[in-house]
Amino acid sequence: MSAVTCRDVHRHFKDVSALDGVDLAVEPHQIFGLLGPNGSGKTTLLNQLQGLDRPTSGQVEVLGLDPIRDRDQLTVRVGSQLQESTIIPRLTVREALHTFASFHEHTRDIEALLTELGLGGKADTRVEKLSGGQRQRVHIALALLHDPELLFLDELTSAVDPQARLAIWEVLRDLKHQGRTIILTTHSMEEAAALCDRIAIIDHGRIIAEGTVAQLIERHAGGTVLRLRTSGPVRRDVLADIDGVTDITDDGDELVVTGSGQFTPKVLAALTTDGIDVVSMTVSEPSLEDVFLTLTGRRMREGE
């Protein structure tokens, strides 16, 4: 059974179609990335999955249940951390966890949870005195208090330094290895590529691409770009016959060869055979950012 399923989900607000036939399946025990530019329908979809809003039509299932009708059952199985999470800043970390634990019938051992998330040494520190990365760990701890199977995490590392970001990534990987399912939204392509087993890209209320990072790059990123300066003119017909080469163009004094697979060594070998020396060379591998730009026409952070 999928952890999350959407079947032809629509959500209309007067004349605006925020979701326009979303189909989605998230398998358990993975980190699933949901990416989309501002106004794409991403927030509306998250609201559907968390039972905060009802679709105009279509079906949403979370852990096999209806997020609105079965909210009481899902409350003990799902944890959420959103950008607007609020903790009274004068509380210590331990006090904050005990306060939120009082909202649940059954919770994990708080001291063990603090240790697991590297907060044991900060348990008696006021939340307002924590670094950005430490506060985000507190938010993760709050989402984990009742030991949920499924976590919704939104922009978890948007305001933390690189060292804290890497530490949080390790926490998320550990949570996945413990058997949890994580649905992650992020504006960081690096983060999505590093963490997510699969990714869906939403724009204009539709899922426009879904797959592993490698699959998305292969389908949508346009290939590896090889830029060369050579000692003499290059016979294009020789390069065009190389398996994997898809395009050959000039850019000033550079020869630009685009392709897929292991075509670069073959290009260099063909040039050597023709007696052409390579004066300089750069290789640009396609990235998730290229996929996003190709599909949406926008870089992730444009328009924020």
From TrEMBL:
<feature type="domain" description="ABC transporter">
    <location>
        <begin position="4"/>
        <end position="229"/>
    </location>
</feature>
<dbReference type="Pfam" id="PF00005">
    <property type="entry name" value="ABC_tran"/>
</dbReference>
<dbReference type="InterPro" id="IPR003439">
    <property type="entry name" value="ABC_transporter-like_ATP-bd"/>
</dbReference>
<keyword id="KW-0472">Membrane</keyword>
<protein>
    <submittedName>
        <fullName>ABC transporter ATP-binding protein</fullName>
    </submittedName>
</protein>
<dbReference type="GO" id="GO:0005886">
    <property type="term" value="C:plasma membrane"/>
</dbReference>
<comment type="similarity">
    <text>Belongs to the ABC transporter superfamily.</text>
</comment>
<dbReference type="GO" id="GO:0016887">
    <property type="term" value="F:ATP hydrolysis activity"/>
</dbReference>
<dbReference type="InterPro" id="IPR050763">
    <property type="entry name" value="ABC_transporter_ATP-binding"/>
</dbReference>
<dbReference type="Pfam" id="PF13732">
    <property type="entry name" value="DrrA1-3_C"/>
</dbReference>
<keyword id="KW-1003">Cell membrane</keyword>
<dbReference type="GO" id="GO:0046677">
    <property type="term" value="P:response to antibiotic"/>
</dbReference>
<dbReference type="InterPro" id="IPR025302">
    <property type="entry name" value="DrrA1/2-like_C"/>
</dbReference>
<dbReference type="InterPro" id="IPR003593">
    <property type="entry name" value="AAA+_ATPase"/>
</dbReference>
<dbReference type="InterPro" id="IPR027417">
    <property type="entry name" value="P-loop_NTPase"/>
</dbReference>
<keyword id="KW-0547">Nucleotide-binding</keyword>
<keyword id="KW-0046">Antibiotic resistance</keyword>
<dbReference type="GO" id="GO:0005524">
    <property type="term" value="F:ATP binding"/>
</dbReference>
<keyword id="KW-0067">ATP-binding</keyword>
<keyword id="KW-0813">Transport</keyword>
<keyword id="KW-1278">Translocase</keyword>
